[in-house]
Design goal:
The chain has 1 helix and 11 strands; from the N terminus they run αβββββββββββ. With about 210 residues, it is mainly beta.
């Protein structure tokens, strides 16, 4: 599944829900947070004697983005998240900087409390990650499909505005290899990238009233 197909499916779901539901809630808003990769990776460079590899670790950095979630019912929803996080690649005595761009689509289950003023929400889906910047350019700026998981809570401030706190995880395999390194390629390593974020959410209510 590509990022474009995720967006198309989300738009279709939104259009369909507005006709099928008496009132559908859409949560929209900007997010800011902390991008925190928790795994290391082997980075390989070409040499006359074959691939030379060294342990590489990622830096933690600020992330910004936005999200949109459509709630088809009191409990069930689907949404999109887009964010970019600053990072660095600590490798062979250097630490060049870069960015990781994240696009995710997920289904969410919501447990409301306090007369709908707050809730817990759990989500799962797929994500697309693109590693860019000077840190990843020598390795071809790799991109990956990932599993996506989310756990968060929401609290209303007014009828239409609230705050969401969420912890997201992207799960995928990553291999950093410079062009010309040779084959066979070394094994990739499983990655767990965390994104802790806070969002200012605006609630938009749309629907079709049956007459």
């Amino acid at each position: 599944m590509t990022w474009r197909s995720i967006v198309l499916a989300f738009a279709l779901a939104l259009a369909t829900s507005s006709w099928c539901a008496a009132q559908t809630r859409v949560d929209l808003g900007p997010v800011v947070g902390l991008y925190a990769p928790t795994s290391s990776v082997f980075a390989y460079q070409p040499s006359p004697i074959g691939p030379l590899g060294a342990e590489a670790t990622f830096g933690t950095g600020v992330a910004i983005g936005g999200e949109a979630v459509v709630w088809f019912s009191r409990h069930l929803g689907a949404g999109l998240l887009g964010a970019t996080g600053a990072t660095s690649l600590k490798f062979a005595g250097f630490a060049p900087t870069g960015h990781v761009v994240i696009g995710a689509g997920a289904a969410f289950w919501r447990v409301p409390f306090a007369n709908e003023q707050s809730d817990l929400r759990i989500g799962a889906g797929v994500a697309y990650l693109k590693h860019t910047g000077s840190a990843f350019k020598p390795f071809g700026s790799p991109s990956n499909l990932a599993g996506f998981a989310s756990f968060g809570t929401y609290r209303s401030i007014t009828r239409s505005i609230g705050v969401e706190l969420s912890l997201n995880a992207c799960l995928y395999n990553l291999l950093l290899t410079e062009p010309g390194t040779g084959s066979p390629p070394p094994p990739s390593r499983f990655q767990v990238d965390l994104l802790g974020r806070v969002g200012l959410i605006y609630q938009l209510r749309v629907g079709h009233h049956h007459g």
